[in-house]
Amino acid sequence: MKSDAGASLAPQFPIGRPLPALDLKLAGGGYRLGMHNQPIAAATAVALMALASSAGASPAGCVPAAATPLRASGAARIYSQGSALFGCLGQRRTRLGSLRGTLPFPARRVVLYALSPRYAATDTVEMGVDTLASTVALIDLESGKTTATAPATTPERAAESFVSVTAIRVNATGTLAWIGRRSAIGALEPIYEVHALLAGMDRLLATTRAIRPSALRLHANALSWLTGGHKHSTTL
After folding, report:
1. Total domains, the chain
2. CA-to-CA distance for 134 and 188, rounded, in angstroms?
């Protein structure tokens, strides 16, 4: 499960010998680590290992015991159970979609997802014959309701089109932002679009071939992205 936790805090010393800091002779009336002091070193090592283990673990919260946690934000979680994707908050669990292509044709599956302390966001792809469509959704995990949806990009006019999402973010107040990608058989060079979904309204913020597909940041109401080597930002 991804979270804000950093690298593992596990102690980097062999379990079978005392801590290097304790394995020293002390001058001036100090003591020499020997058999009587060995339990102290062992207890210290065990305590450090337990502390590191608890610091590196991420609580399951509302995730069922047999499920796989995928995202955590506050008390909210996104997890998988088999091929199904769920979000939960408190006692409420909400199905967000399938991680594998559904039947019958056209197949649908969730490709990207994001989480804030109350809201989940998903990108669901529909795979047809020589076509790929994508829809984003905002789900209120407190009520279990989908509050808004939008197509990933503006319409691609060329036949046999391919539309997808390359980055998706959601904040604590339910603002959803994403970068959409569209192309077609007759227009192979993709066009990227930056969108924001505010109060159910889809806003197109930028469109160009030079937008970096994954360079999207949403901090509170500040949204930023990169076009070429230039940073653009707006307050939502």
Report:
1. 2
2. 17
